[in-house]
Write a structure and sequence with these properties.
Elements: H1 2-33, E1 40-47, E2 58-61, E3 64-76, E4 79-87, E5 99-104, E6 111-115, E7 129-134, H2 139-168, H3 172-179, H4 181-209, H5 215-242
Parallel strand pairs: 1-7, 2-6, 5-7
Antiparallel strand pairs: 1-4, 2-3, 3-4, 5-6
Organism: Mariniflexile litorale
InterPro entries: Mce/MlaD, MlaD_Phospholipid_Transporter
Region (Disordered): 221-243
Amino acid sequence: MKPNKNAYKIKLGIFVSLGLLILFVIIFFIGSNQNLFSSKFKISTNFRNVSGLQVGGQVRFSGIAVGTIESISIINDSTVNVVAMMDKEVKKFIKKDSRASITSEGVIGDKILMISQGSSKSAEVRDGTSLKSIEPVEFDDILASIKITAENAEVITDELATMLIDINEGEGTLGKLLNDEGVARDMEKTMENLRQGSKGLEENMEAAKHNFLLRGYFKKKEREKEKAREEAEKEAKKKAEEK
């Protein structure tokens, strides 16, 4: 019986040891995730609405997890205080003008506290510093805004459709103008008069060029135009040779 009793004790000791080892490993991983084994400091911030942020949630800086939410408490009817415990190694990067905001981890993920980068000229935060916050945008507010936009688009579409129907039926000033044959004929005559006027102007300019009083003026303009063209060609040739 004695050998069996000793074997039982050995097995029990191994089992207890393995259990304790697994427990220590679990505590280690939980502690690492919650920053329990590193030097920490606290910061706080206030929101009107924390939008589902919970104690134990992540705190991120530049997209990196640097701490956890330690407590969330209601100060008054319009203020909720959030205290975060953060890794002391990132303390030197967080400035007094940094801002705290609440965002989601992914589209429908858990809420996290995001700390923005401050200016390089601002001083480093101290333990217990209260940062200014940026209020989160509620999903319900986004849906309400989209709904209003859709309703406005529907009203505009209906009004455009009504206006086009009236135009096709010749209703209203614009409809009468577009459907009135007399207006169309008048516009056609106006365009023909403009073409005739343009043609007459070209003929007058051509006649002026042959007038001995104005012949010198037009020749001078032609010489200036030719000179400008030659200078442009020389400049282009010079640039080509330099290359």
